[in-house]
Amino acid sequence: MTTPSPADFAGQRITVAGLGVSGISAARALAGLGAHVTVVDGGDSEKQQAAARELEADGITVRLGDGATLPAGTDLVVTSPGWKPDGPLFAAAAAAGVDVVGDVEIAWRLRGPDSAAWLGVTGTNGKTTTVRMLASILAAEGLHTTAVGNIGTPIIDVVLGQGKDGERPYDVLAVELSSYQLHWAPSLRAHSAVVLNLAPDHLDWHGSMQAYAADKGRIYEGNTVACVYNAADKATEDLVREADVEEGCRAIGFTLGTPGPSQLGVVEGILVDRAFVENRQQQAQELAEVSDIAPGSGTPAPHNIANALAAAALARAFGVRPAAVRDGLRAFHPEAHRIQHIADREGVTYIDDSKATNTHAAEASLAAYEHIVWIAGGLAKGATFDELVQKSAARLRGVVLIGADRALIREALARHAPDVPVVDLDRTDTGAMSEAVREATRLAEPGDTVLLAPACASMDMFVNYNKRGEAFADAVGELTAPDH
Questions:
Q1: Whole-angstrom Cα distance, residue 153 to residue 25?
Q2: Edge-to-edge strands of the sheet including 250-254?
């Protein structure tokens, strides 16, 4: 197959679906390459109108209020990640024989002959933490790198900006990829990639768990050096087995236990490598100590140890030295609202994991603490909570429920943890968080952890999970003065 070049887009009539960050980035990039770009979006808010005016000033056509009709003469549709694949715009494109791709696919096609390698990260949970750990490790090796993709930096901007204005070109990119992005990126071929875990999520978009897993598995297609999988999650290894990779590409596992050959794992508090060593049958290379993962924040949660192992595996696949793994993990600091320590007050620890927006993430969060007063609830997105409650019941000191779908959690608690005290707050206003924290504090005993790990989305009460986490931190701050 002939490798596309930027010149191939000149003169093409391209429709960009979506006026969000990735859509605006794609529209500007493609217009800059000489394409005739039309952006379509079903919305017509003041914010969208303002964005439209800016694009129109650059010669880009914008059509608001109609995201379903395919503009006449379209040669290619470039969609924003969240647009569902069964939408009418894409049905019209299929009927007209027009390809639909995403911004990641365009970025891949725009790479130059000496472009940076891509190390890909996907999974239901842990993507952002892992990709930022990976970027920190790569930087510790002295490589010019950055974290891009679903993490917030449009990858098209990074690819087109390579080496401009005298800037040193990137050696390697740490690329976070969502299932949406992978669905629309058929040509992507990473150097190495990982699927961290698989659990039901976004099934309304994909249509089934099988389709969701298949889109996640696309990240392994054409890998050249390593397909990294989670040894504790057989579904991720199955995706490696099903992938069509380059000859010589290896399957590399990571485990929280003692690693076997071709795995990374943990031995007596040490992260070790039995994959990228000369004699992996008999030798292991020390990489870092568990305490090097986000130092100063206490003992890392098991899932963050797993994230560190996955990041280390990708870095080692790229040839990074063991010392850089250690130094990179030491330099990494988790983002807010991801197992974030807020305060210790009267012997009780307060932890913000507002990013735990599904049951899989909440399960990992709950597993990190021994005695918990759990603040949970929000928009369930079709999830069920029986398995989560069953696995976590022994750790629960009490539960405070908030949000629109809290009854689903309450019913699961009644079935599987009937002796655990439950406070059901019948309110969905933002002030409910202050009451939730006060109630959780009342239930907590010295040595307990008050944990915000909602297992639900936030939009019933808050703009996003960040605002929910901020409300939790503010509510904790309203309590009595901290211990001295």
A1: 10
A2: 145-149, 172-176, 117-122, 192-195, 226-230, 250-254, 263-267, 270-273, 285-289
Q: What is the 3-state secondary structure (H, E, C) of the chain?
A: CCCCCHHHHCCCEEEEECCCHHHHHHHHHHHHCCCEEEEEECCCCHHHHHHHHHHHHCCCEEEECCCCCCCCCCCEEEECCCCCCCCHHHHHHHHCCCEEEEHHHHHHHHCCCCCCEEEEEECCCCHHHHHHHHHHHHHHCCCCEEEEECCCCCHHHHHHCCCHHHCCCCCEEEEECCHHHHHCCCCCCCCEEEECCCCCCCHHHHCCHHHHHHHHHHHHCCCCCEEEEECCCHHHHHHHHHCCCCCCCEEEEECCCCCCCCEEEEECCEEEECCCCCCCCCCCEEEEEHHHCCCCCCCCCHHHHHHHHHHHHHHHHCCCCHHHHHHHHHHCCCCCCCCEEEEEECCEEEEECCCCCCHHHHHHHHCCCCCEEEEECCECCCCCCHHHHHHHHHHEEEEEECCCCHHHHHHHHHHHCCCCCEEECCCCCCCHHHHHHHHHHHHCCCCCEEEECCCCECCCCCCCHHHHHHHHHHHHHCCCCCCC
Tell me how far apart the alpha carbons of residues 29 and 26 are, in angstroms, rounded to a whole number. Answer: 5
Q: Tell me: pLDDT of 168 over 60.
A: yes
Structure tokens at 470: 């901020």
pLDDT attached to residue 482: 45
Minimal CA–CA distance to 396: which of 344, 346, 352, 445?
Answer: 445
Q: N- to C-terminal Cα distance for the chain?
A: 66
Of 128, 214, 211, which Cα lies nearest the Cα of 174?
Answer: 128
Give the residue among 148, 219, 166, 191 at the shortest CA–CA distance from 320. 191
Query: Residue 35: is it exposed, middle or buried by C-beta count within 10 angstroms (0-12/13-18/19+)?
Result: buried
Q: Are 405 and 428 in contact (CB under 8 A)?
A: no
Residue 388 Cα distances to 303, 365, 366, angstroms:
16, 11, 9
Residue 188 phi, psi dihedral angles, 5° rounding:
-55, 130
The answer to whether the CB of 292 falls within 8 A of the CB of 331 is: no
pLDDT band at 484 (very low <50, low <70, confident <90, very high): very low
User: 317 — phi, psi (to 5°)?
Assistant: -60, -30
Question: Is the predicted pLDDT of residue 299 greater than 70, yes or no?
Answer: no
Q: What are phi and psi of 193, to 5 degrees?
A: -155, 160
**Pairing outcome for strands 226-230 and 192-195:** parallel
Distance (Å, whole) CA 381 – CA 383: 6
What are 48's two structure tokens?
A: 């969208």
- Other Cβ atoms closer than 10 A to 9: 23
Q: Say whether pTM exceeds 0.85.
A: no
